[in-house]
């Protein structure tokens, strides 16, 4: 049996502490996980894991071998990547991104990349939480943030502008909004990941920060946009998501002269040292794609 694959399975079990969880994550059978672990233990002539009915844990020998096995796997992967011709990129890339960005922008962006590299597979993991890239075996996370996770390597691939929107029905039934401070008297729709909802707006180099009240919050932009369409309040939305609703008249711009803070879109990954050629090529492709397409155009 392939010792490199067996080592990779062992490293995954060391993270999950479960043969079943590793089987699910690696898309192999549980008996195959067992065979890979037996291969490693036979090869090293020592027991690497303690098995109980509740969990799996490293033996003392397993703990001693863990870093050396991890280094060996990384070196083997690096050698494979160095020998791989860029014109024959292959392998699976797991991407974590938000539902709104994945739906609205990532799918059209990766379509030409897959067409150019038929040996590459892409698995998109849609999640509106901060993923543990190592534990979840994510190769690349696409995140919109002002300050990305400092433990990760990040490359900005685009800028993300935002806009305040509300349904005409909501605005017709509530006091006029002529300046940012008026927002404090309105129902606003916020992201639940923030304890305080402060919107930063700029006009002619003048910055105003307004703490708004959000009775309705969600962890995902599309949900908040739909709430705005239904007249439930004012939403701070990425422009890439609002074009359709604006064009249909479902929402209109609020305080159009005031610009919300521009965020950066980052491609984040755990380690620069062992980034595969396919992942490197995808990052370059995404940066080029967003630089050359009018993907944030909005209709006012």
UniProtKB/TrEMBL annotation:
One GO BP: DNA-templated transcription
Keywords in alphabetical order: DNA-binding, Transcription, Transcription regulation
Recorded superkingdom: Bacteria
GO molecular function: DNA-binding transcription factor activity; sequence-specific DNA binding
Domain HTH lysR-type: 1-59
Family membership: Belongs to the LysR transcriptional regulatory family.
Name used for this protein in its record: LysR family transcriptional regulator
Species of provenance: Vibrio metschnikovii
